[in-house]
Amino acid sequence: IDFGYKQVPKQEKVKRVAEVFHSVADKYDVMNDLMSFGIHRIWKKITIEYSSVRKGQKVLDLAGGTGDLTAKFSQLVGDDGLVVLADINESMLKVGRDKLRDKGLIKNIEYVQANAEELPFADNYFDCITISFGLRNVTDKEKALRSMWRVLKPGGRLLILEFSKPQYQILNKAYDLYSFTMLPLMGKIVANDSESYRYLAESIRMHPDQNTLKKMMEDAGFVDVKYHNMTGGIVALHTGFKF
Ligand code: SAM
After folding, report:
1. Cβ contacts of residue 82 below 8 Å, gap of 6+?
2. Is residue 20 a part of any domain in this protein?
């Protein structure tokens, strides 16, 4: 089975992404820790540092899923700020909302079911937008980037944390092997769902590399676009501004 983003028609991809995240929602956090050996926490911590979010600001955690970034932003923006956790998938949103409420984070967070391609927010609204491990699941990435640009305030910052292209051939090979054998196996053992994790491996391989994504952000209108490789380029953090 191969349902990377080029092989299937648009509606088919939308349906499969929905099925994958409905299926993995309950086990998402534990699988994240297992699959990345906990390193995703460091990637997210670095993303928070690059965001420069301050008290009183409005932040959109897009494709926010189970809300790891939202939790951190909620503390940073304080009672006068706002964090919107937006995700297309109601199962992921529900797991995220329950988790954040259990942590006592309620005051400054809103939950919105939304498609990144058509964000239901006013123009120039957010000081900062993050999309962490979400963009590769979006069908029309160009449209989503334009939508993010629209709702960002002038001077606002977009941060895209996503799998990217490993910078060393040996790392690339090892990583390919790991993702196409270990990920589905772990998915099978922990979540009884190897297909969803095979999708994950395929979507990672299909995702645009560092320079392609940089160019896509520039085409959508972002300026001063830069990327920072992490863990040898397995993951990259792209940052850009709305002028
Ligand atoms: N941001 C979280 C994190 O870093 O742990 C969750 C990432 S999870 C791998 C990807 C999320 O993207 C899922 O919750 C999925 O529902 C969401 N997603 C996929 N397509 C989307 C779209 N078109 N618009 C908004 N969210 C989407």
Report:
1. 58, 59, 108, 109, 110
2. yes
Q: Between these two residues, 164 and 194, which has the higher pLDDT value?
A: 164
Asked if residue 5 is part of any domain, the answer here is no
For the domain that residue 126 is a member of, what is the CATH number?
A: 3.40.50.150
Taking the C-alpha atoms of residue 17 and residue 236, their distance in angstroms, rounded to an integer, is 22
Q: On the CB side of 183, how many CA atoms lie within 13 Å of its CA?
A: 21
Atom of ligand 1 nearest to the CA of 139: 23
User: Is residue 6 scored above 50 in pLDDT?
Assistant: no
Query: What is the average pLDDT value for the chain, to the nearest integer?
Result: 92
The mean per-residue pLDDT over the stretch 175-192 comes to: 84
Residues with CB under 6 A from ligand 1: 17, 21, 63-65, 68, 87-89, 92, 115-117, 132-134, 137-138
Cα(92) to centroid(ligand 1), Å? 8
* The pLDDT value given to residue 199: 83
- Which atom of ligand 1 sits closest to the CA of residue 44? 4
Domain residues for the domain of 126 are 10-166+208-241
> Which residue has the least CA distance to atom 9 on ligand 1?
133
| Number of domains observed in the structure of the chain | 1
Write down the pLDDT at residue 1: 35
Can you tell me which residue has the tokens 């040898």? 232
What distance in Å separates the CA atoms of residue 70 and residue 225, rounded to the nearest whole number?
23
